[in-house]
Write a structure and sequence with these properties.
The protein is α/β, with parallel strands linked by helices and 290 residues long. The protein is built from 12 helices and 9 strands.
C-alpha cells in the first residue's frame, strides 16, 4: 500500500477526526463519514485531503482500509451490518472502537460471514497522540490483514502491538482503559490527601518523577486538575462506558470499579460528561467562584 491510498474513517468524533486529519497530512486520501453529516463536513472544510461523505455507499467502496471509530459496539454493529457488504475484496476493516471482547467477537463474526479481512484494533491514546502519530495500536487478527493495513496504522501510531489472532486487542484495551480511569480517580483523591497534609502538588510531582513510581499520564493530569482545564481528550462519558464494560467482564465483582463508576456518574451529573477525564477532580475540587 503506497501513499495516496484511499482510507475511509467512519466516525467524526474527537478521535476519528484526529485520525482523519493525521492520515490526510500523511498523504492518504481520506473519506470521512459520520451519522451526523455536518460534523464530517466541518472537518473536511478545514483539512485538505479529507472528503466528507454522507452515504455509506459512497464512503466504503474503493477504500483499501475502512476504520470504524464509533462510540460502542452497538453503534459499530448498526453501521457495519450494511457497511460490511460494501467493502472491496482486498479491503481491510480496522475496528478501532472500544467495544469489549464480546462485541468484538460479534463484529469479527460479521466480517467472517461476509469474507472480509478484519482487525480487532483499538488504540491506547486519545486525540493528541492520534494527531501526532503517537497512538499505540493493540491489534488482533491475521498477519496478512495486518500487513495490508500496516501503512495506515504506522501513519497514526508509534507502535503496533500484535497481541493475537482473535479479539485479544479488545480485551487488552479494556484492561488498559480500566487502569487509566481508575488511576485518574485515585490521583484526584491523592491530591486531596496532599492538601490535607500540606504537601505541595509540585513536590508530589517531583518525588514521583524522580523514581520508578512515576506515571507520565497521571502526572499530566495533575496540571489539568489544578488549573481546572478539562479540554476533551478522553471524555468522561466514554470512560464511564468502558468502566461499565470492565465491570461486566470481571469474573468477580470489583469494589474498586464500583467506586470509580460512582465518581464518573457524579462527574457526568455535574455537567462534565463531554470533558476530559481530568474533570473527575471537579467533584472534589470545583473552581472558585468568579
Amino acid at each position: 500500500m503506497s501513499q495516496g491510498t484511499t482510507v475511509t474513517v467512519l466516525g467524526a468524533g474527537a478521535l476519528g477526526t484526529a485520525m482523519a486529519t493525521r492520515l490526510a497530512e500523511a498523504g492518504h486520501q481520506v473519506r470521512l463519514w459520520n451519522r451526523t453529516p455536518d460534523k464530517a463536513r466541518v472537518v473536511a472544510e478545514q483539512t485538505d485531503g479529507i472528503t466528507a461523505v454522507e452515504a455509506l455507499g459512497d464512503a466504503i467502496p474503493g477504500a483499501a482500509v475502512v476504520l470504524t471509530v464509533l462510540r460502542d459496539g452497538d453503534a459499530v454493529a448498526s453501521v457495519m451490518s450494511d457497511g460490511v457488504t460494501l467493502l472491496d475484496d482486498r479491503a481491510v476493516w480496522v475496528q478501532a472502537s472500544t467495544v469489549g471482547p464480546q462485541s468484538a467477537g460479534d463484529l469479527a463474526g460479521l466480517a467472517r460471514h461476509h469474507g472480509v479481512a478484519y482487525l480487532d484494533a483499538p488504540v491506547s491514546g486519545s486525540t493528541d497522540p492520534a494527531r501526532h502519530g503517537k497512538l499505540v495500536w493493540i491489534v488482533a487478527g491475521p498477519d496478512d490483514a495486518l500487513t495490508r493495513a500496516r501503512p495506515v496504522l504506522d501513519a497514526l501510531g508509534s507502535s503496533v502491538l500484535h497481541v493475537g489472532t482473535g479479539v485479544e486487542g479488545s480485551a487488552v484495551k479494556l484492561a488498559v482503559n480500566a487502569w487509566m480511569t481508575a488511576s485518574t480517580v485515585v490521583m484526584s483523591d491523592v491530591l486531596a490527601l496532599c492538601d490535607a497534609l500540606g504537601v505541595d502538588h509540585s513536590t508530589l510531582v517531583e518525588t514521583l518523577d524522580a523514581g520508578s513510581l512515576k506515571m507520565p499520564y497521571e502526572l499530566q493530569k495533575i496540571d489539568a486538575m489544578d488549573d481546572h482545564l478539562y479540554t476533551p481528550g478522553f471524555a468522561v462519558q466514554l470512560a464511564l462506558k468502558d468502566i461499565d464494560l470492565a465491570a461486566e467482564n470481571a469474573t468477580t465483582p470489583s469494589s474498586l470499579f464500583h467506586v470509580v463508576q460512582d465518581r464518573l456518574h457524579a462527574t457526568v451529573a455535574a455537567g462534565h460528561g463531554k470533558d476530559d477525564l481530568a474533570a473527575v477532580d471537579y467533584v472534589r475540587n470545583p473552581p472558585p467562584a468568579a
